[in-house]
Amino acid sequence: MSILSDNLIQQLDKSTYPFKELLENFTEAIYVISLEGCFIDYNDGFSSLVGPGENYLNTNFLEIVHPEDLDIAKNGFVKTLQGEVLKEERLRIFSSSGKVKSIITSKVPLNGKNGNLIGILGIAKDITTEIELQSKITQQNNRYRSLLKNSSSVNVILSETGDVMYRSPSVEKVIGYKPNELPGPFFSIVHPDDLDFVMARFHHILENPMETVVVDVRIQHKNGSWRTIHAICNNLVEDPDVNGIIINYHDVTEMREAQEKIHHMAYYDYITDLPNRRFFEERLDKELQKAKSNNSHLAVLFIDIDRFKYINDTLGHDIGDKVLIELAKILSSFVSKKDVVARMPGDEFMILLPNIDTRTFPEDLAARILRRLKQPIIVDQYELFVTTSIGITIFPDAGEELTILMKNTDLAMYEAKESNENSYTVFTPEMEKTHSRKFTLQNDLRRAIINDEFELYYQPKVSATTLEVVGAEALIRWNHPKYGVLSPGDFIPLAEDIGLIVPLGEWVFETVCEQIKKWENKGFPPMIVSLNFSASQMLQKGLVSTVGRLLDDSQVDGKWIEIEITESLILERDNEVLKKLEGLKELGIHIAIDDFGTGYSSLSYLRKYKFNTIKLDKSFINDIHTSIDNQAIIEFMIRLSNQLNMKVVAEGIELEEQLSVLKTLNCDELQGFLFSKPKPVAEFEKLLRRDAVF
User: Fold this and answer.
1) Are 132 and 89 spatial neighbours (Cβ–Cβ below 8 Å)?
2) The pairing of beta strand 590-596 with beta strand 561-566
């Protein structure tokens, strides 16, 4: 302790201030406060607590007390002066470094020899560390309690019989119940449909204590709704601190619903809500594995809507989507729950028939679908007739792997589409050979013009009165290096599919112009040469200017060329075609309508378009010599055409009897195998040289 003044020492009553030497070395802080409240003595423990003791001598003890604890310190000081002994007073004080410390201090009155009060003796203990530790413990406990209460997870401990031994407070947040509100065992809130599954998993974890069981299960919320929880279960029955099954679960209802929605978007078509291609192929792959294992059969039907683009283009995509929805309903009505109806991209559907009993069943199904589609589909105010082409494959005949089966189903569908609308075709190996040939032709077609493999044949047109050659039709042939001479039907559709029909058509027109010029130079009598224009050619941009340029380059008058178009082209693109035809006529080009009489509005278009030539379809000519009705129709067409100043050409004449009738009906020109098949230029010129009369 500090050295007290002799006066103070002499005044002390040793009975109240004993053991001075002992107190000097005491580890706790010992201090003496005068009646005025100033520090007048201290030990080394005091210096350890607040800093060098000499700095505090004769300073008021309240100067080191925390402002918020001043009232406590003042009251304690007064009470001690009044003779009370303060056993425990908690204060916060400032050390010389400015750090706040927490202390517990005890104070007793300090009396002199004559019994009078001369000061206060205090003993202080530093409890800062304990207070901080306790604060942390309290904070952690509060945090843990808050976590248990507000956690999105619930902790449950079950006995071996399934009774709840503990539920964390968070159960109220997750399923609405307070921990003590839930009656009975845990299983009482499990969905009835999930109960057997949950009980089985509970018994499993009892029998296999080392395993962790993870399950999704539905439990009932306090509000009555069913919530899906994701539960992780561990067997700690042998743990003396737990002695039960621990279940930690949290609500995953919204997450599972979102996952289901995403899964649905990934595997289902958004228009028809049918399974999509991804779903179909995954399911087909699984069924193929089953069929291989069981030595059973399955079938796949590929259904394509004929001319669906026409519905979208004319009525709009909204109507088109509604047609797809109706078709989805119709197709689904024909199959069982084990079958799959899926929508492919665009206007295609597929049906999977797993484990079929008979090989004829897929054909029977296709036939029933086609019969139903002969009836109209009602969409809004429209009554629509929709036809389809169906390809069928049967496992294992058409392939044993998914990709092969899908490819062959596609081939069968296209075979049906090419053969006849609203029909079905079962895949055969020959189709694959045909497809391989088409694929080869498609690739070779791109090089054919460069390699000069195309050639024009000419079929004569004969005057019905004189039977002399008065014109010709140019028909393209492909001298293929592998397959020989190919007719237009073998490659024109391919050229349209791969976008080569326009340059090919331009080559034909240019070659016809050059040939007309060659015949003129050889001295042959001038005649009109006709050639066919496809829809793509007719609708191409800059058609009229391109034709004009080719005429100028070849120095051929447009009046010696006739372009044949089909009535179906007019029906689909009426106004656009009319403008193109008017431009071609200004160049002198003759316009002929081919296959006349097979469309829907033939007579109205005769007046509107003012064609130069009408070509009567072969279907009318075939039995003209035996059918009085056909004769009457042809006679009417010829008379009408003559009144409209149009020439009439009958094509497809093969019999003398047909020729006789047409001459009687005053047809203008004739064309057909009866006179000549299409011939190469050299052979056709022989007809011109001998002034052939048939």
Assistant:
1) no
2) parallel
